[in-house]
Design goal:
The structure holds 3 protein chains of 3 kinds.
Chain A lengths: L1 H28 L3 H26 L5 H30 L5 H8 L16 H5 L2
Chain B lengths: L1 H21 L3 H26 L4 H34 L1
Chain C lengths: L1 H17 L3 H21 L3 H25 L12 H20 L9 H4 L2 H11 L5 H9 L1 H21 L19 H24 L7 H19 L3 H5 L2 H24 L14 H42 L5
Classes of the chains: A mainly alpha, B mainly alpha, C mainly alpha.
Chain lengths: 129, 90, 328
């Protein structure tokens, strides 16, 4: 039982840490704001529950701290996607144009440096917005 | 494994910090700030568990809330500066 | 880990100095105080980390942003020569570093701070006061005068803001004009989250004897719950729940509660803020005294923080209204 728990928590930590780094690299390397939101939001939303589950499993017994960690997980799960969503909407409202759209429609945008990022990829579903 | 997770979180914080310093638009900075906040929550939780700090869960809980509040505040006040003049032009 | 945190602190500070966009600087300061609080935590100073997280990352960011709404977004280029300030700062820094060479190392048992009063607090306070969290017993009982003074300082800060800026009672909301206020997802999540924030604030307030926390932090968290409501649901709604006039009285009430405890013991023939007048049992007297005092601090901090926020955001609304044509 103990070995199983240890193995589970260790794998949670490993996958969570890997996802964290993935999100960080994505945040740094992706070409425009909307792709960065994708990188940051998606990975954080999965990495947080994994890491916190890892901590809960790693604890010797269930205590008040486990409940608090569970609350943290729920709060992060509720707030993080909401914040990403609100940020994206605010960016759209504030006049930031997604990359593909700017290339197809007008051509002028705040982001110029990385327009060679294959626009045919998701141009269809963004234009339906 | 705990150590690996702590290192991963710190590296991610560093990457997000670089984005926050570079960030071409203000929204990028908001996103990076939000990410650093979330990573701070995770760092406190994982690191607190690893190093045996007392009462780390309370602080991580508080961080999770405060992070949300401050990112909402940033968006709220930023849009005030940005959209009100542009609405006047319409 | 400490080194990594310190390195990130330095990077943030340098970036905050270099960037002229004050909005970005405010966000960087948010990061800065998150990192600082983590650092405090790794020094095992939980209450300080708690305060830094609540005040530095939460309220200060919100207030600075509200101020930026009143002033401009970009910093002007400095006209003066940068070399003289640089020299002065370098000399001061060198002097400070020289001073730290003589200072005792962190955690040195022979340091003066560890020998004078700390042993007494650590050895006696569990017997005298019976509270697990020593910070609370030092803050609210041994150093009760200091805390009373701090509460008065906070109260005076609130008074100063009210006198200079004033609070506008305007309760107008402009639907359709803001990107944040119209988001259904955000509204629902905030509505669900808000009771938990307030509950957590009460937990911090009442649990300060046993874990980290106390009146200061609880007041700030309670206020930030209301600030969140105000941010998402537009100006005015939060003012309907907690009217500014009521807030002013609440701030005074907190200070009066604190000082009233002191006066009560004074009238019962004990020294000012001597809690043993409150009950026959000395330990439970300390408990009642600390509870009342923390409650007073919490009420004052809550109302002053909310007052300052209302004053700033109400002010910004007025400027917006006079600058532009009326909304459609």
């Amino acid at each position: 039982m103990d070995t199983l728990l240890n193995f589970l928590s260790a794998s949670c930590f490993l996958i969570g840490g890997f996802l964290c780094i993935t999100g960080g690299v994505g945040l740094l390397r992706f070409p425009d704001f909307f792709t960065r939101v994708h990188a940051a939001g998606v990975t954080e939303t999965l990495a947080t529950p994994l890491l916190i589950t890892g901590i809960i499993l790693n604890q010797p017994d269930i205590s008040l701290d486990s409940m608090k960690l569970l609350m943290i997980m729920l709060i992060v799960l509720a707030t993080n996607p909401t914040a990403s969503h609100a940020m994206t909407k605010a960016a759209l409202h504030g006049g930031l144009v997604p990359l593909t759209q700017s290339k197809d429609d007008s051509g002028d945008s705040t982001e110029k440096q990385a327009t060679n990022k294959k626009p045919s990829d998701n141009g269809g579903d963004i234009s339906t917005l | 494994m705990l150590f690996a997770a702590v290192v991963a979180i710190i590296v991610t914080m560093g990457l997000a910090l670089i984005r926050a310093c570079l960030g071409p638009t203000a929204y990028d900075r908001m996103l990076a700030t939000n990410m650093v906040g979330t990573k701070a929550v995770l760092l406190i939780a994982v690191g607190g568990h690893a190093l045996g700090w007392s009462g780390y869960a309370d602080i991580a809980l508080l961080y999770a809330m405060i992070n949300f509040i401050s990112s909402i505040a940033v968006m709220r006040f930023f849009e005030y500066q940005k959209t009100l003049p542009s609405q006047e032009d319409e | 880990m400490d080194i990594a945190l310190l390195a990130m602190l330095c990077v943030t500070a340098i970036a905050a100095i270099r960037i002229r966009d004050l909005f970005a600087v405010t966000m960087l300061f948010g990061i800065y105080s998150f990192l600082t609080a983590t650092f405090f935590l790794s020094l095992d100073a939980i209450d300080v980390a708690f305060t830094e997280a609540a005040v530095g990352a939460g309220i200060t960011t919100v207030l600075m942003l509200a101020t930026l709404r009143l002033t401009g977004r970009y910093e002007r280029k400095p006209k003066h020569n940068i070399f003289i300030p640089l020299i002065v700062v370098s000399i001061t820094g060198a002097a400070l570093v020289y001073g730290t060479l003589d200072a005792p190392l962190l955690g040195d048992p022979n340091a003066p701070a560890q020998q004078h009063v700390s042993p007494r607090y650590i050895e006696e306070s569990p017997k005298e006061i019976g509270i697990p969290n020593m910070v609370t017993s030092v803050l609210a009982s041994y150093r009760g005068y200091d805390t009373l003074g701090e509460t008065f300082v906070i109260f005076c800060a609130g008074l100063a803001v009210i006198i200079i800026l004033g609070i506008q009672d305007s309760g107008e909301v402009h639907p359709g004009r803001s990107a944040i206020g119209d988001q259904l997802v955000l509204r629902v999540v905030v509505k669900v989250l808000l009771p938990f924030i307030l509950l957590f604030a009460l937990y911090v307030q009442l649990h300060g004897d046993y874990g980290a926390g106390g009146g200061f932090q609880a007041g700030i968290i309670f206020a930030s719950g209301f600030i969140l409501y105000d941010l998402v649901f537009g100006e005015g709604d939060a003012r309907l729940i907690v009217p500014p006039n009521f807030l002013k009285r609440l701030a005074a009430l907190g200070v009066l509660l604190y000082a009233g405890v002191g006066l009560y013991s004074l009238f019962n023939g004990k020294a000012f803020l001597d809690y043993s007048a409150l009950s026959d049992n000395p330990t439970s007297a300390q408990h009642i005294g600390i509870f009342l005092v923390e409650l007073g601090v919490g009420i004052t901090v809550f109302s002053v923080a909310l007052t300052i926020f209302f004053a700033f955001s109400g002010r910004a609304q007025i400027t917006v209204k006079t600058d532009r044509r009326p909304p459609l």
